[in-house]
Amino acid sequence: MTKRSIASLVSALICLALLNGCSSNKQKPQEITEPTEESVRFEISAFSDIPSSEQEDWAAALSAFKISCRSIYRKTAWAEACSKASGTDAQNAEAFFKNNFTPWKIEKRTIGTQTGTVYSVSDTGLMTGYYEPLLTVSKHRTERHTTPILSTPDDLIIVDLAEAYPKLKGMRLRGKIQGRKLVPYDTRAKIVARKDLDKYSIAWSDDPVAVFFLQIQGSGRLRTEEGELIRVGYDDQNGRPYKAVGSWLVDQGYLKRHELSMQNIRAWAQNNPDKVDTLLNQNQSFVFFKEKKGGDPNEGPIGAQGLPLTPKASVAVDRRYISLGTPVLVSVSQTNPNLNFTKLVVAQDTGGAIKGPIREISLFLNPLPSSYQRLGCWEAPKRINWSFGNRSQLVRIPAAHPGAGRMELRSPDPACNPYLAFALVLAAAMEGITEVTPLQAPLDDSGSLPESLEEAISLAEKSAFIREVLPENVIDAYLAEKKKTAARFEADANAVFQQHLRTI
To answer: Are 375 and 475 part of one and the same domain?
Structure first.
């Protein structure tokens, strides 16, 4: 079967079974004497074949499925199921799924390309967790809550260097006025210590490490002690370069490089409270947020369907094999930590970034440090949105005569490699066509493009989407070169900045 026919089969039959981390039907390995390829096989199963669990939550799955129906109800294969779901209450959730869906078991096979020999069969897979930061905060500074979550201060000045030096077109500096001089804006350490910035605080946290990861994530939710929920998103940055704090932990011998993870960094911080400030201040960058108004703050982040995710009822999938909106039964069995459960979830996201691949592929569309100083200026986009006529938006769909039209992706610049850029843009477009999602309103804000070459490098390094499109050796060589470019630019920019200050 082709990928297209598999996707059609999943949609048409409303497939509903994926066993992750459960007991496997692996065959005894055979000696492989020919090239092989992996294939996916779907087999009809029954609900009675699926292990039961005390953690089954059919009602949560029904709620998630109803949300997905906002997108998929237009498709013929889903119309009847969505119609029935709308009239089903939580008490009848289990009966709804068992009466309207047929379980299909998914197996991964390794097959010889020359003889067709099946060398291995597995019904196991990898399941990981992902999250939207949720911080418990205070609306006011207290003895315990001393770490601010700040909106952009009025003293943050953005300088367009091209106004003084045309050769520096596209370069911007962030700083503040000190006497008659423009100086670099404060570092993270100074910002946190400044009491005069209290008036810009959205909230205050008692966990500086949690705020640090919120800044890396770029968005999240805050729950006040009174129970109010506030959703925040990226607004601006202090102009200081981002530096991964994990490298300092490795350099100091506190962690091994293979031990670096958010969990291990948090654990180290908890065990070394006296060194937390030193750790976090290795990164001089500081992110300012803005409150996201509108929408239900109780809803989860937006997934690949353009719809809110449901905690413990949404799952990210490989869309080559499972269509978005598909109910999926997962059976998990693992140790450390001990997890054993079977439950129904709904495919509502992909393994890439929640906002799609545009941020991940920015490194290939905007490959220079000056590329990111251009974004947001001279009709170059900064926010992830679209419009009919505004040339400063990421996507422009200009008016056209009936039967004809075009779309403009306005973020790429002339410095990009057109072969890599077109490959990634076309792959992203095809991914969007595969799963049609509701179009957000014009000028609705869905986040921002990367702020710097360093941020773009970090996003590209983590991107599963890019590694599905481009060869590994091409990606690795490209990343290595861009890291060198970023290092050279940082050194040159410091020299230019000092000269500019002397001129002023």
So the answer is: yes
* Domain annotation covers residue 269: no
d(C-alpha 256, C-alpha 228), whole Å: 40
Letter string b/e over residues 164-188, b meaning 16 or more CB atoms within 10 A of that residue's CB: eeeebebbbbbbbeeeeebebbbbb
pLDDT for 128-139, tens place per residue?
666 678 899 999
Give the DSSP H or E segment for 290.
Answer: strand 287-291
Q: Which residues contact 103 (CB under 8 A, 6 or more apart)?
A: 15, 16, 17, 44, 45, 46, 47, 49, 50, 329
| Distance (Å, whole) CA 155 – CA 175 | 8
Instruction: Please check whether residue 451 lies inside any domain of the structure.
Output: yes
Round to whole Å and give the CA distance between 192 and 149.
Answer: 9
> What are the structure tokens assigned to 463, written together?
């991107």
> Cβ distance 364 to 478 under 8 Å?
yes
Grouping H, G, I as helix, E, B as strand and the rest as coil, residue 357 is coil
143 and 287 part of one domain: yes
Q: Give this prediction's pTM.
A: 0.48
Q: What is the dihedral of CA 461, 216, 162, 157, to 10 degrees?
A: -170
Tokens of 34: 């020919």
> Per the structure block, which two tokens stand in for 224?
């006040």
Across 337-439, the runs of DSSP E, i.e. the strands, are 339-350, 386-387, 395-396, 408-409
Same-domain pairing of 326 and 223 = no
- 369 within 8 A of 485, measured Cβ to Cβ: yes
The residue range of the domain holding 45 is 3-130+307-349
Same-domain check for residues 385 and 471: yes
DSSP H helices in 351-471: 362-365, 369-374, 418-434, 453-461, 464-469
pLDDT at 62: 93
H/E stretch holding 178 reads: strand 172-178
Cβ distance 267 to 304 under 8 Å? no
Count of domains forming the chain? 3
Q: Are residues 287 and 140 in the same domain?
A: yes
SS3 label, residue 307? coil
Alpha-carbon gap, residue 301 to 309, rounded angstroms: 6
Do 47 and 165 share a domain, yes or no?
no
User: What single-letter DSSP state applies at residue 308?
Assistant: B
Question: Does residue 287 share a domain with residue 153?
Answer: yes
- Per-residue pLDDT tens over the stretch 86-107: 999 999 999 999 999 988 888 8
Whether 239 shows a pLDDT value over 80: the answer reads yes
Report the run of H or E that residue 264 belongs to, with start and end.
helix 262-271
**CATH of residue 389:** 3.30.590.10
Q: Are residues 406 and 483 in the same domain?
A: yes
Identify the burial level of 63 via C-beta atoms within 10 angstroms of its C-beta, where 0-12 means exposed, 13-18 middle and 19 or more buried: middle
